[in-house]
Amino acid sequence: MSSYEARLQALREQLKADRLDGFVVPLTDEHMSEYVGSYAQRLAWLTGFQGSAGSAVVLPEEAAIFTDGRYTLQVRDQVDGRHWSYQSVPETSVADWLKAHAPDGARIGYDPWLHTRDWVARARQALADRGAELVAVERNPIDRVWADRPEPSKARLVAHPDEFAGKSSAAKRQEMADWLKAQQADAAVLSALDSIAWTFNVRGQDVEHTPVALSFALVHQDGTADLFVASEKLGDDVRQHLGNGVRLHERHAFEPHLRSMAGKTVVADPERAVAAIFEALTGAGARVVARRDPAVLPKAIKNGTEIAGHHAAQARDGAALTRFLHWLFVEAPKGGVDELSAVERLQAFRQACGDLRDTSFDTISGAGPNGAIVHYRVSEETNRPLEMDSLYLVDSGGQYPDGTTDVTRTVAIGTPTAEMKDRFTRVLKGHIAIATALFPAGTRGSQLDTLARQYLWQAGLDYAHGTGHGVGSYLAVHEGPQRISPVGSSQSGGDEPLQAGMILSNEPGYYKTGEYGIRIENLVLVAARDVTGAEKPVLGFETLTWAPIDRNLIDRGLLSAEERAWVDAYHRRTLEIVGPQLDGEALEWARGACAPL
């Protein structure tokens, strides 16, 4: 089935054979992951959509694909509008669309290992209002027609040493055990892959860009745990690292094991554990308590060792990016540089800085109008040259054993227009507003989001993504629960109180469809601040990312004296951190790029 039209038709034939009138296709795996292994890329196989978030519904006579504002342009480029209607989230949800479009009395299938319990309840109610039924399938119908579907990764786990983790797995499990006692629960399910990696101080290679291993776990009130992972992925070193307090089982034994939990009180996370886990526990006679996965918050609040590791990783990564920006300054005006060659050169600079294990996501390398596609992914078909008098946006990051990086720079190739400088400076002002914000303990990311947008709003402008996401420690580049985003947006979650030790991105932007995109992104650490006369604890942000911001794009007249001082101080500190790692022409260029405004 070489064409997506043929794949859609094959799925419809399979649904008919399964006595189903439709099927829901989310972009996730059994762990509710954002980035998934190739074996779980069902949405991409069916539709051609290459984004990192979306879902689809297939009915006998129509089909719809659902994406948020980050992918408005991309989905239209990649998914054939003759066969799929484009639906925008959160304006439209899958449940609402089914309520309006499912045939009366229809049987709509879903895979209970790919949806949360709450989603199932909402979809079931929406269909009931239509006189239709939501039906759990035993085997995903896409898997039946996807003849060359890849096998799950067989890569081995590796131990993540305490010198990077800052706390032993035994200590983490004991803290969870104490929490379980307070909850009067016997065990907690861990199904999110980064939670398992963090809890057991292991890393893997099963998901591109995120160093995790396909697994499930149960942590018990006595501090012991059951870890469900393919035995072929475990070497003697990892078995020894895990120790006697961790009982090992095959991954496929997880569901049967849940069915043996009769009479137990088990905590399961309604956001991260799929519906099938709740159903297995409930069916076994366990008492299920819906609580957040106990690894989520301590994983988000970095300890001193993890913070020190981030500083070290960011310093190396900043030097690599600065070398790349110097190379771009020299080579792009000559012609011959395109989006793909820029990605290759940036990757080479990162590899040369030492200890790079992977990129933290597919590098977004957007020249001219491609920069306006928020989550653009360059390919041979879309590759554009970097042209004079245009903007180039590069959003990239690295995975290092001591930290995860994520940074965006927007660069003028040649001479920018007055409008480009105006938009860039408004984005910069919003970036500075976040970087310098002071706020009382208990403040949520949603309360800070408007600080980044205010200068764009003044000109009637905005951007269709959150301002900041959490970042892991050699783990997921998008890590919850903290965010800086409007509550109720497609990237909601900005209602988590920010706490010292959390790491987030600071990345306001502006995108002019068909012309250019602008984003300025650094990572920041939430830290305590001393404020004279403060009546409650005060927090602020410490910048972690160090690389030049393009001075040629700054309209100095739009900056206040305080904002100009921030830019100068930022560049002075950048030169202090990355300068000793540079030499020759790169160092001379960096001195000019970091000169005072």
From TrEMBL:
Q: Where is the signal peptide?
A: none
GO MF term list: metal ion binding; metalloaminopeptidase activity
Q: Which family does it belong to?
A: Belongs to the peptidase M24B family.
Q: State whether keyword DNA damage applies.
A: no
Alphabetized, the UniProt keywords read: Aminopeptidase, Hydrolase, Metal-binding, Protease
CDD domains, from UniProt?
Answer: APP (cd01085)
SUPFAM superfamilies xref list: Creatinase/aminopeptidase, Creatinase/prolidase N-terminal domain
Q: Where is the Peptidase M24 domain?
A: 311-527
- InterPro entries, from UniProt? Creatin/AminoP/Spt16_N, Creatinase/aminopeptidase-like, Creatinase_N, Pept_M24, Pept_M24B, Peptidase_M24_C, X-Pro_aminopeptidase_P
Q: Which organism is it from?
A: Sphingomonas parva
Q: Which stretches make up the Creatinase N-terminal domain?
A: 7-138
Q: What is this protein called?
A: Aminopeptidase P family protein
- Can you tell which superkingdom this protein's organism belongs to? Bacteria
Q: What Pfam families does the database record attribute to this sequence?
A: Creatinase_N, Creatinase_N_2, Peptidase_M24, Peptidase_M24_C
* One GO term describing the cellular component: cytoplasm
User: What sequence ranges are listed for the domain Peptidase M24 C-terminal?
Assistant: 538-597
